[in-house]
Amino acid sequence: MPRTDVTQMAFGKIYPLLVAKAEKKGRTRQEVDRVTGWLTGYAPETLAQLEASDITYGDFFRNAPEIHPDFTKITGKICGIRVEEIPDSLMRQIRCLDKLVDDLAKGKPLEKILP
């Protein structure tokens, strides 16, 4: 079975999964929106609009108002891969959001999650 390219998947399908992962561990959508907004520059209202749209996950990142310059300071493993070693910038941004949400779900305070 061929692998699905995550950049072609709908943002509206992926983002609720990130929110659910955090909520399952006692975190809130507002906290997920905050780390997502920090990384991408999107406001919470815009995130909600994009979630209801047909934008792809790749275009969500490609069209981001401003990828935070400190995203390169995010380190650690996600799915067994070190995020700081991902050569493709788009995929690195995607995995950085995964890492931020993972850290939220692990109970880390926001002040320690955002570099």
Describe the structure.
The chain is mainly alpha-helical and 115 residues long. The chain contains six helices and two strands. A two-stranded antiparallel sheet has the order 1-2. Helix 1 (11-24) runs parallel beside helix 5 and helix 2 runs antiparallel to helix 5 (89-105). The protein is globular, with a radius of gyration of 13 Å. The N and C termini lie far apart (38 Å).
- pLDDT < 50 stretches: none
What's the SSE pattern?
A: HHHHEEHH
Class inferred from helices and paired strands: mainly alpha
Number-wise, the strands total 2
C-alpha geometry: globular
Strand content: under 5%
Please work out how many helical segments DSSP would assign. 6
Computed CA radius of gyration, to the nearest angstrom: 13 Å
Percent helix range: 40-55%
How much is the average pLDDT? Answer: 93
Strand order of the largest sheet: 1-2
Query: How far is the N terminus from the C terminus?
Result: 38 Å
Characterize the biggest β-sheet. Answer: 2 strands, antiparallel
